UniProtKB/TrEMBL annotation:
This is Stage V sporulation protein AE. Keywords: Membrane, Transmembrane, Transmembrane helix. NCBIfam families: spore_V_AE. Coiled coil: none annotated. The chain crosses the membrane at residues 6-24, 83-112.
Length: 116
């Protein structure tokens, strides 16, 4: 049943993003920003962790999870180190994902030719 709910929740997040593109005519940047901020707000009010517990990968794979990770890391480190922890916590939790995106993007740019 966990696979079903992961599919439903992840699909619902993607449908919301597609509606932002098609109905509201938002740009990809605006849509991305809204989804990241939505994940951050949901984590800030304590609703994203129960969603992860319920849907698993359906809640951790979409871009909303990035906002969740930023806030979650900042809040954890703020408890330990105060205001400095807010900044270091965001980087500590998200650094591996951002580094992987940069490295794989560079590899892709070196291997493939653009169609220009």
């Amino acid at each position: 049943m966990i696979f079903f709910w992961a599919f439903v929740v992840g699909g619902l997040i993607c449908v919301i993003g597609q509606i932002m593109f098609d109905v509201f005519k938002l740009s990809p940047g605006h849509t991305l920003s809204i989804l990241v901020v939505s994940g951050a707000i949901l984590d800030g009010v304590g609703l994203y962790e129960p969603l992860i517990d319920f849907a698993g990968a359906g809640a951790t794979v979409p871009i909303t999870s990035f906002g969740n990770s930023l806030v979650h890391g900042a809040m954890q480190e703020a408890e330990k180190h105060g205001i400095i922890g807010v900044i270091t916590g965001m980087f500590e939790v998200t650094s591996s994902g951002i580094s992987a995106a940069i490295i794989f993007g560079m590899i892709g740019a070196l291997i493939f030719k653009p169609k220009g």
